[in-house]
Amino acid sequence: MSKIMPYGEANPAHLVKLGALECAMSSISTALKMIGRDPGRLLMHYWNLTYYRDVLYAGRNVMRSRIETFGDCSLQFQICRTSMLEMKQQLINGCLFLYQCRASHLPFFPRNMLNFEASGFDHYVLVFGYDENLDSFHVADPICEYIGLVTRKQLEAAAMVEQQYYCYSIQPFGEVTNQTSYPQDADSVLVDKYFTMHYDVQAFDQFIKHLHVGREWNGTQRRLWTERNILSIASLIKMRTIVWEYMTQLRSIAKGSGEALQLQHKQIIKLWNGISFLLLKYKMNDDSAIINRIEELVHAVTREEAAFMQNIISQEVSS
Q1: For 186-202, how does the pLDDT look when each residue is reduced to its tens digit (9 = 90+)?
Q2: What b/e sequence results for 10-38 when a residue is b if at least 16 CB atoms lie within 10 Å of its CB, and e otherwise?
């Protein structure tokens, strides 16, 4: 066989483009759509927060994606130490796989989207096929909306570590269907168990600490920290909106709770937008009044998100 594509060719309708820092979850969600799974149930539990490499971040470690619980697929990490051809058998076996790499070494990745690589953020793409005649892999990158061939040598050159190729195989459990069915009351248990599992409230304290310490930094250091957090907050806002949309689409919000939760969600987005706007000012002016106002908004969004999460968990949920 010259071409190996276990789920056929990817097309733009398969791409799930989440926030700028959500390349891993975007690729996982795209894989689920190609396989025939709905990524919505996975994404509706994706309310995360951490402070990672000096950036407020709404993402999650790949191996903690909960794809087994909410995507009905297995996820296995594998390091190929000789060649990426080792992953060819995985494709033959009906797997797709994520490839952890350096975006700057991918031939198709836009140079103006490399903001976070210098800060130590890795990139992930989805590999959905292999062409033996061209010795090339079929790759989808939802973040820059790319679908096409990349040679094996080019992919190997983008490895995080020379001659070590980090891959995450995704394979569905059982028969593939266009719509996965779930137990009637499953989400009432799962929301309680998973919704806040990857939410670190101390991330706010770390952010505020650097906000104040930033007054001692030189202009370049403060500008870079501020710009990265503005971009990451934009990604966070998008993810918060996506989570809420999937909650309402999948009817996991109990009758009578929707309107109040929607108002809470709008207030959360408003507060995050306010923080982002003030960070723009802070980038050029470290005036104490601006810092104090940002800190006030951070405390406010901390309270609002805590109340929102508690209301989500405590309300009656039906799948």
Answers
A1: 444 445 556 667 889 99
A2: beeebbbbbbbbbbbbbbbbbbbbbbebb
- Dihedral (Cα; 251, 46, 230, 207), 10-degree rounding: 130
Number of H helices, E strands in the chain: 10, 9
DSSP percent split of the chain into helix, strand, coil, nearest 5? 50, 20, 30
DSSP SS3 for 166: strand
pLDDT attached to residue 168: 97
Kindly report, residue by residue over 227-270, the tens digit of the pLDDT. Answer: 999 999 999 999 999 999 988 887 667 777 888 999 999 999 99
Q: Which residues of 234-259 are buried (b: 16+ CB within 10 A; e: fewer)?
A: bbbbbbbebbbebbeebebbeeeeee
Residues of the chain with pLDDT under 50: 176-190, 316-319
pLDDT of residue 319: 38
**What's the distance, Cα to Cα, between the start and end of the chain in Å?**
42
CA distance 204 to 56: 8
Q: How many CA atoms lie within 13 A of 267 on its CB side?
A: 17
Residues 6+ apart with CB under 8 A from 267: 304
Q: What is the largest CA-CA distance in the chain?
A: 66
